[in-house]
């Protein structure tokens, strides 16, 4: 067999009309590469944006989407530390939503034994972002108050889970009752609040007027603005992204007077700029997943034929955690 089924973006379009299933040749490995039979591919919001050309990275057309996947090594180039049969997590800009994929040796990590393939596919990007934000950039200390916006999303939920594992006091903000109930059920130590009606007073009440030491913000817009009004002195407002649409601005006098820092977080770039620390970050996340301290939440699994349902669920922002496509399911 030399053919595989893959999802392919052949034209950029806002309505997914430029994305379809395709039968493609199984890719061949070159030096330094590994062929993986992909068992699960997790979807994140960047995967949706890339089908529209709305993400900062714009792969040449056509391309196979999917930044995260997990599977089993089929073949590895000579000199690789990977062997056929190894269970691995992959990472890259593209290539995940396919039955097979070729990845660089250093783009793989072993699948923690406690995780399923779907959970493993959901681990790397979200938890690496959360780790770099909270530990590297936020300098989190046990007992700090952590305010997480977009807490039901893949990255937000990872920040809630990791925050609890690090001994932080977590306040999770979610927009719907369904999402709040799910977070409370999955992560009972966290305080879960409704951000739709404003959250400043709720945060100040929960923290006895202290405010949030760390704010994890993948939303931006009005959420960022209000976060500046409930952040603690010496707090760190961690800018993850702008899922809310509007890129906010803050006058320099506000962080000066209130004594907080606005800190940008780019987990992938952090690892590229500081390779040794990047390897340490992955190792730390892997260790926490291996001992059960963190567990990625999979909202639903879809067959390859139902790929559009998975993307539509993500587009509607109804997903709690990650949606996962099972290429052989």
UniProtKB/TrEMBL annotation:
Top EC class of this enzyme: oxidoreductase
GO molecular function, one term: quinone reductase (NADPH) activity
Lineage, opening ranks: Bacteria, Pseudomonadati, Pseudomonadota, Alphaproteobacteria, Sphingomonadales
Annotated EC: 1.6.5.5
Keyword terms, alphabetized: Oxidoreductase
Pfam families hit by this protein: ADH_N (PF08240), ADH_zinc_N (PF00107)
Stored Gene3D superfamilies: Medium-chain alcohol dehydrogenases, catalytic domain, NAD(P)-binding Rossmann-like Domain
Domain of life: Bacteria
PANTHER family cross-referenced by the UniProt entry: QUINONE OXIDOREDUCTASE-LIKE PROTEIN 2, SHORT-CHAIN DEHYDROGENASE/REDUCTASE
Keyword Oxidoreductase set for record: yes
Biological source species: Novosphingobium taihuense
Annotated ranges, domain Enoyl reductase (ER): 14-325
Name the UniProt record assigns to this protein: NADPH2:quinone reductase
């Amino acid at each position: 067999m030399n053919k595989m089924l893959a999802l392919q973006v052949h034209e950029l379009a806002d309505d997914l009309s430029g994305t379809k299933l395709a039968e493609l040749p199984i890719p061949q490995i070159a030096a330094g590469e590994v062929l993986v039979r992909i068992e699960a591919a997790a979807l994140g919001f960047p995967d949706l944006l890339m089908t529209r050309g709305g993400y900062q990275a714009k792969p040449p057309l056509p391309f196979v989407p999917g930044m995260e996947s997990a599977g089993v090594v089929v073949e590895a180039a000579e000199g690789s530390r990977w062997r056929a049969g190894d269970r691995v997590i992959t990472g890259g800009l593209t290539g995940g939503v396919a039955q097979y994929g070729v990845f660089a040796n250093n783009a793989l990590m072993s699948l923690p034994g406690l995780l399923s393939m779907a959970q493993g596919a959901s681990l790397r990007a979200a938890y690496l972002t959360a780790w770099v934000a909270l530990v590297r950039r936020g300098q989190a200390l046990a007992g700090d108050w952590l305010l997480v916006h977009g807490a039901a999303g893949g990255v937000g939920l990872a920040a809630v889970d990791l925050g609890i594992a690090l001994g932080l006091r977590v306040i999770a903000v979610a927009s719907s009752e369904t999402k709040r109930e799910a977070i409370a059920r999955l992560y009972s130590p966290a305080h879960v609040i409704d951000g739709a009606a404003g959250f400043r007073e709720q945060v100040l009440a929960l923290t006895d007027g202290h405010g949030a030491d760390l704010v994890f913000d993948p939303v931006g817009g009005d959420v960022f603005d209000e976060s500046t009004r409930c952040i603690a002195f010496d707090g760190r407002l961690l800018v993850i992204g702008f899922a809310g649409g509007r890129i906010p601005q803050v006058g320099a006098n506000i962080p000066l007077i209130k004594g907080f820092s606005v800190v940008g977080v780019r987990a992938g770039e952090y690892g590229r700029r500081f390779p040794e620390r990047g390897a340490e970050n992955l190792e730390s996340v892997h260790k926490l997943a291996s001992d059960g301290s963190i567990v990625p939440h999979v909202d639903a699994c879809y067959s390859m034929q139902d790929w559009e349902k998975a993307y539509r669920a993500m587009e509607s922002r109804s997903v709690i955690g990650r949606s996962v496509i099972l290429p052989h399911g």
